[in-house]
Structures are given as structure tokens and as C-alpha cells.
Amino acid sequence: MTATILDGRALATTLRGELDEGVAAFKDKYGITPTIAVVRAGEDPASVSYAKMIQKTFDKRGMGFQLHTLPETASQDEIVALVARLNADESVHGIMVQEPLPKGIDEAVVKDALSPDKDVDGVHPVNAGRLAQVSPVGRPPMVGPFFVPATPAGGMEILKRYNVEIQGKHAVVVGRSNIVGKPMALLLLRENATVTVCHSRTEDLAGVCRTADILCAAVGRAKMIKGDWIKPGAVVIDFGVNFVEGQMCGDVDFDEAVEVAGMITPVPGGTGPMTNLMLALNVLEAARRQVG
Ligand code: NDP
Fold first, then answer.
1. How far is the CA of 243 from the centre of ligand 1 (A)?
2. Which range marks the domain in which residue 60 is found?
3. Ligand 1 pocket, 176 CB below 6 A?
4. Does ligand 1 have an atom closer than 6 angstroms to the CB of 98?
5. Protein residue whose Cα sits closest to atom 19 of ligand 1
6. What's the rounded mean pLDDT across residues 168-183?
């Protein structure tokens, strides 16, 4: 059996069309350009290249992009003061603070400083807390609006657009970071999956993975999840971005997994292309909420 490829690039093209329509309608109605401000302290190469990718996406979509850089030596007070200034700036609708922050900076303090209404990366405790408290689909909503981190939001969008049945299924998420694994688990729970979250201390990881109808990998270890860890016919979402001998690969051994799974995201071309678009959609949504 060869799995159906969950094509993130094709889906991103569809989403780009939907985003463009939304941005054009918003600009027509309000004469305002939905704008993100990216904050970076220092010049971490991965952060520099991620900011460039975001800028490219926002430029192409006719959205506003601002980059605010501080030196590696910036103090916590300086970073918080910059965030506070952007919180108060009406021309900025979304703020993203890039990590890693310089040594000695308390990330929690910086996250707390963000306005939850502009936290389009979904890292402020209010947004993370509302995701944790949200009612399951089909029950009355119990929390206010919030933002979901872009990467798991993209993974969820892939499952939905490919009509993957989630309710009642066993979803296993490998990885429990605040930015990918944990929010993905909560999103699956909201969709009424039965969710197991695995991490570096999980016993018999392969055995747990084998019970998954939906298997999500957010680990950061190249090709760790092997074909014989996958239940035949399972849906596999691979968030991993790793490089082996200059080639990008996921956390799942794709060549093995594609022979066993029912559906699978490739790397590259799966979850990756969705991330910036979900971020841009969050910025558009933030702008809508702020004018509304
Ligand atoms: P983190 O390093 O923050 O978290 C990794 C998680 O994997 C941790 O929960 C860790 O467990 C767990 N883990 C590590 N080793 C093992 C192991 N041997 N067995 C089981 N679990 C293990 O990574 P991120 O969540 O930030 O990123 C995960 C992956 O997703 C990376 O490859 C990253 O590059 C990629 N990524 C992709 C994006 C995209 O757009 N597709 C965007 C962001 C990230 P513990 O908690 O016990 O330490």
C-alpha cells in the first residue's frame, strides 16, 4: 500500500487565494493594511532566515511587515519596552517575538508583555490558556477568542481539508513543546480525538505510536519514526524539520512510512508551507478584531 500524500504546497496555494480575498476585502472596507511586527534580539541565523520568509510571504500577500531588531546585548527591559511600544501602535496588528532570546532574558516575562490581542503566534498565557480551556467541538463555546500557534494550526488545517475523520480516533502526538506538540494535542482534543502525548521519557514509544490512527511528530530528530511504528492505514502528520547531509527531512522515515500509512505529509512540502500562511491568517484575524 502506498499512502496518499497530504500536499501542503497545493493546500497553501488554495489558502493563499482565500487569504488574498480576505486581505483585499479588509483593505477596501477599512483602508488599513494588516501588519505584523517581528521582534528579534541578536542575529540567530535560523531566526534571520525565518524572518525573511515571513517578510516574503507578507510582501507577496500585500500585508505589512516590520522588523524590529535589537542587539544581542539588549536587556530584558529594552525588549519589554519595545513590545509595549508595539502593543500601543495602532498600525501594528500582530507581534511575533523570535526565539531564541539572548542569554539571561526571561522568555516568560517577554511573552507576558505581549498584548494577547496582538499575540498572533499564540504564545501569551491567555491564548495558550484559552486553547487549553476551549470546549470540544459540538458543545457551547466557553472561552473568548484566542490565537493558535501557526504550525499546529497548519497541521490541523491539513487534516480538515483532506476530510480526515478525527472524532473518536486515537491521536498520538510525539513532542510536547508549547509551540507545536502541546497545542496540536489540544487542537485534536477539541476535535474529539482521544489524545496521547509522548515525549523523551515515554516508555515503549514505538508501541504507543503503533496504536495511533493519527500520528503527529514534532520531535526534531531526523527519521526517528520508522515504518514499523505506524499502524497500517494511519494518517501521519510530520512537523519535523531536520537536515541530513544537506537534505531536509522530517521526524518520520518517509520512505518506510509511505508504504504503511494511509495518508502522510512529506517533508519538505507538507506542514512547512502552511505555517507562514496560518501566521498571515492570524494577523488578518487580529486586524479584524482590532477594528471591530
Ligand atoms: P522542541 O525541541 O521544543 O521539542 C521537542 C519535543 O520532542 C520535546 O517535547 C521532547 O521531549 C521530544 N523528544 C525529543 N527527543 C525525543 C525522543 N527521543 N523520543 C520522544 N520524544 C522526544 O521542538 P519543537 O516542538 O519546537 O519542534 C519540533 C520539530 O518541529 C522540529 O523538527 C522543528 O524544527 C519543527 N518545527 C516545524 C515547524 C513547521 O513549520 N513545520 C515550525 C516549528 C518547528 P521532552 O519534552 O521530554 O524534552
1. 14
2. 33-117
3. yes
4. no
5. 200
6. 98
Distance 241 CA to ligand 1 centre (A): 9
- Give the pLDDT of residue 142: 86
Q: What pLDDT is attached to residue 270? A: 98
Q: How many domains does the chain have?
A: 2
pLDDT at 168: 98
Q: How far is CA 162 from the centre of its chain?
A: 18
- Computed over every residue of the chain, the mean pLDDT equals 97
Q: Per-residue pLDDT tens for 26-63?
A: 999 999 999 999 999 999 999 999 999 999 999 999 99
Task: Tell me if residue 223 falls in helix, strand or coil.
Answer: coil
Give the whole-angstrom CA distance, residue 73 versus residue 80.
14
271 Cβ closer than 6 Å to some ligand 1 atom? yes
Domain at 223, CATH number: 3.40.50.720
* Ligand 1 binding pocket includes 221 (Cβ within 6 Å): yes
pLDDT digits (tens, 9 = 90+) for 104-160: 999 999 999 999 999 999 999 999 999 999 999 999 988 999 999 999 999 999 999
Cis status of the peptide bond prior to 141, with omega within 30 of 0: no
pTM of the model: 0.97
Phi, psi of 2 (to 5 degrees): -115, 135
The answer to whether residues 263 and 173 belong to one domain is: yes
CA of 82 to the centre of ligand 1 (A): 29
Tell me which of 180, 201, 223, 274 to substitute to probe ligand 1's pocket, judged by most ligand atoms within 8 Å of the beta carbon: 180
Residue 239 alpha carbon, nearest atom of ligand 1: 41
Distant-in-sequence, close-in-space partners of 105: CB < 8 Å, separation ≥ 6 = 41, 74, 76, 79
pLDDT at residue 221 greater than cutoff 80? yes
Same domain, 178 and 247: yes
Nearest CA to ligand 1 atom 15: 200
How would you label 227-240 residue by residue, b for 16+ Cβ within 10 Å and e otherwise?
A: bebbbeebbbbbbb
